[in-house]
Amino acid sequence: MELRWSPRAAEDLERIFERIRKDNPTAAREFIKTLYSGCTALKAFPNRGRAGRMKGRRELVLPP
């Protein structure tokens, strides 16, 4: 399985980080680490996510 971040997704991730960091820098780092680790884990466990809206794609669902 190949894992790629689109430029738009990478920009969104940066904006999310910056927004959370304004209120809680520690939470921002932990959130991004959890999200990135979960996405990376899809390479080893591709069925971990749910079927995506686009054929052949998976979506990662993280607990709240």
Please give the structural blueprint.
Blueprint: H1 7-23, H2 25-44, E1 50-51, E2 58-59
Antiparallel strand pairs: 1-2
Would you mind describing this structure in some detail?
This protein is mostly helical and 64 residues long. It is 58% helix and 6% strand. It has helices at 7-23, 25-44, and strands at residues 50-51, 58-59. Strands 1-2 form a two-stranded antiparallel ribbon. Strand 1 and strand 2 form a beta hairpin. Helix 1 (7-23) runs antiparallel to helix 2. The chain is elongated.
Task: Please describe the structure with a list of short key phrases separated by commas or semicolons.
about 60 residues; mainly alpha; two-stranded antiparallel ribbon; 2 helices; about 5% strand
Structural class call reads mainly alpha
Main pleated-sheet profile: 2 strands, antiparallel
End-to-end C-alpha gap: 26 Å
Helix content: 55-70%
Overall average pLDDT? 87
Number of helices: 2
Topology pattern, helix = H, strand = E: HHEE
Shape: elongated
Q: Looking at the chains present, what oligomeric state does this protein adopt? A: single chain
Segments where pLDDT lies below 50 for 5+ residues? none
Task: From the alpha carbons, calculate the radius of gyration and give it in angstroms.
Answer: 13 Å
Strand % is 5-15%
What's the count of strands?
2
Strand order of the largest sheet: 1-2
